[in-house]
User: Fold these one by one.
Assistant:
Number 1:
Amino acid sequence: MCQESTKFKNVWTTHSASPIAYERGRIYMDNYQCCITSIAQQPRLIYQKSKCAKSEKIEDALLLECPLGEMLPSPSDYKASLIVLTVQNWLLRLSADSGEVLEKVYLAGSCCKFFRYLSWDTPQEVMIVKSAQNKLPAAARQAGIQQSVLFYLAVFQVLPLSFIGMLEINKKIFGSSVTDVAVSNGILIVMYSMGLVRLYNFKAILEQFMEQPFALGQEFNWNGQVGSVGKYPFGLPCNIKITDTPPLLFEASSLENAFQIGGYPWHYIITPNKKKHKGVFHICSLKDNTLAKNGIQDMKCCSLEPDWIYFHPDMSGRIIHVGPNLIKVLKLKEVKNHADQMEIAEDFTIVANRENCVNNNVTVTASGRVVKKRFALLDDDPEQETFKIVDYEDELDLLSTVAVTQIGADGRAHLDFHCNEHGSLLKSIPLKESWDVTYSHEVYFDKDLVLHIEQKPNRRFSCHVYQMVCDTARDDDS
């Protein structure tokens, strides 16, 4: 991968009028009706389905892969499949190889809309389908009728696909200022309008408030309704009724509800809940809320796009802090002679190449006249090399970065591979296509494949695939 003679060649480019998605070697186009494999030497079509009606439009999708060492009921369960959510409240499991519908589950009738929100609680094990926020019609609101149920969450075990339960997030239980909810790693995360974030034990909620378990396809008589679980028009019963506020695990106040947990021992990252603190991150112990030594991280960058911070996905407990021209990889370590206190130390940094950039506020002309600039140059000025994407490739243990420089209408980007342990640059790959910083971009680095999906003016989308090419003759000589 990192040998000097190894090149990445642009082998394929396609364009689309609709968004393009990528999942583990498969490129999806035309609202998941068209699937192309990117693993072959030249990307090729896997399947093309006929155009679907608007009512069957897919809003979100997750890729399911067979768990190792488990006996599954159907031969199709051993092959990769795609769970998709349609605009009309259907949850479908499709074959990743043919697009054939393997299973269909109807989620709910007109009481709520399930679309756009598919996520993992435990990856490849437990899946959450979240409804859109419940809103009363304008006439009902004007009449003074109060809406108490904000969201519904449907919980599924996957492969084989089975229904665990459905619950509602109610203002009467969680408070009137709830704005959003999420579930991750067995934790129910509830967000409030004032920046407050509260955490609850989701598994304990399912066990404590489950009224009656149901299986998909089971005939039921529930609250006066008779039907089959997951079948039209009945959908799923709301069989988990939270009647009392669950025990609170943890709460914190953070600007824009930004809250992350990670590290070892466990720490969390927040931004103090005031606008003047935007771009300032506090790293605190989850055990006792104490701020780590050097735990206030502030790049003090002046830029249009904010810097961002997150726990390293390699499970090392480190932290990645990304600014316009600087990437800091931080680590938690014990304070000397204080085993119960942790400090934040710099592991390594990656710096953008701005050697030729001179940002003087005062210049002197040839005649000796002093000219002062009215405005200072922003740290993410497009004409300077700026970091746009940072990712981690777990199978190769490489940290990848995308840096962009735009001069006029022409933007140039390169993908760099860095040693994940020390941060040293191992290889740089120039991307051939121009990069417009005013539109959204995604770059995937997947073993011997680099894939760039970009949005262009008028919602046009393009996908560029690069494959690794090895010059074996040169390698043999060396």
Note: Residues 52-253 form one domain.
Number 2:
Amino acid sequence: VTLTMLGMWPLLLFWALATPCQGLLETVGTLARIDKDELGKAIQNSLVGGPIVQNVLGTVTSVNQGLLGSGGLLGGGGLLSYGGVFGVVEELSGLKIEELTLPKVSLKLLPGFGVQLNLHTKVGLHGSGPLGDLLQLAAEVNVSSRVALGVSARGTPILILKRCSTLLGHISLTSGLLPPSLFGVVEQTLFKVLPELLCPVVDSVLHVLNEFLGAVLCLVPLGALGSVEFTLATLPLISNQYIELDINPIVKSVAGDIIDFPKPPKPIRVPPKEDHTSQVTVPLYLFNTVFGLLQTNGALDLDITPELVPSKVPLTTTDLAALVPEALRKLPPGQQLLLSLRVKEAPTVTLQKKKATVSIPADIHVLFYPPKGTPEALLELNGVMTLNAQLAPSATKLHLSLSLERLSVTLASSFAHAFDVSRLEDWLSDVVRVAYVPKLNVNLDVGIPLPKVLNVNFANAALEIIENAVVLTVAS
């Protein structure tokens, strides 16, 4: 892994003095807590299916690839091959590593520093013995390393290998004959060369993990609305059980302008994380910003015509006059209505314990179509729609689905004298439910983006709505 260490040391020194978050999120960022089990799983998965197996460890069935290949470090002319370290022992020829058991991973988080990472593996060596017979040896090896957590020049969390050593365990001769004197040479040589051969495995594991951690810095599109860019707001913190990242969401319009909406007046009190779980806290700010973008893009405006509502929902002047006959009896009967909803202010999202609501202020203009001519204004109403939000996580987003709880209106102007406009609220609510809310939910398909945190999948996460935030928790 290529590192710029001169620029890294001040960050590491400052970060090492820090302590984990005590439950208050002072910024409007997205707080991610990665459990140590999740880190261990990522390391193990990188060994199983990643490029490490192909490019560093090699495979028994494909000996022409990676370090174990005939042209690689351990192949012909390599450290352990004929002509290499063992070339001085004429009685041995071609002894090289042919097998490397998939390492078992164990790790321990080191508060204020990083990670103690151990890989336990078995090495199989094949060659020719003194009598020309097949020689096979097996050795147990424990690779021990200390890894620091810091911030890269790009601003991403990064794991840095600080120290690596190997402890050679039991060596056994599984095939062939080897005199004790030569066995001692083999043992001494393995002590010398194994650190150089196996510590690159750790370095390659960290390279894969740093790619995952680097994905935190990502640009997530919000459809036609804009995008969200995630960056680190503060230096990473580490405790005995988890790594904590305070991730700052930067929301941009389609034109690339940074969108800045009001932030919560007080810090978010984040609930404690249980062991063996990872956690992401999504702030109210992101919800308000997405709805603010919808409003500024005109995506919350709608003209409702009879074609948008089912026949069971009346939308004619006759139906309207029947609701308030004393005020609207002069309306020409049987004419189709047009409801024009315009949202001129950003909606307000409220996140409280176990409930999420959205309040959308709207100017509602009621017009009718005369037999010939353009629509004529009847009423202008100031309305406030209060909608309940159902939240559901996926791997990359937090999805919202809205349903109308209530609609309240006041009369702004009318062709007739003032009247009790609350008598129109039930009718207007029916129209909004069947015509406006479905369109709103389609626009909300953009969702609330989640940062990519070590490939943790939050699709099946437990969801908790707290004051000014939503917490997603997934078992490691």
Note: The chain is about 25% helix and 40% strand.
Number 3:
Amino acid sequence: MAIEVRIPTILRTYTDGEKTVEGNGATLDELFADLESRHAGVRERLVEDGKLRRFVNVYLNDEDVRFLDGISTELADGDSVTILPAVAGGSGTAMGITGRR
């Protein structure tokens, strides 16, 4: 079962710079274990205490897996998994937002 995994820039050091890699697994957890076997260190950046890390977003065919079965989400041959780090923060001043009236 081949699953395409899109890798964000910040994790490409684990995939030798590859933007996409192929993996196998019946669930997202199995897919991450498979990726770990070929790209050591990547699973640790995605999973903590058996759950997806808080600031990592994972999409299965454009659906957020947090609204499916999380790390237990089932996968099928030909699926596409996208990993995106959550974007947050900023000072607000860069856009002229200071909080003052």
Note: The domain at 3-87 is CATH 3.10.20.30 (Ubiquitin-like (UB roll)).
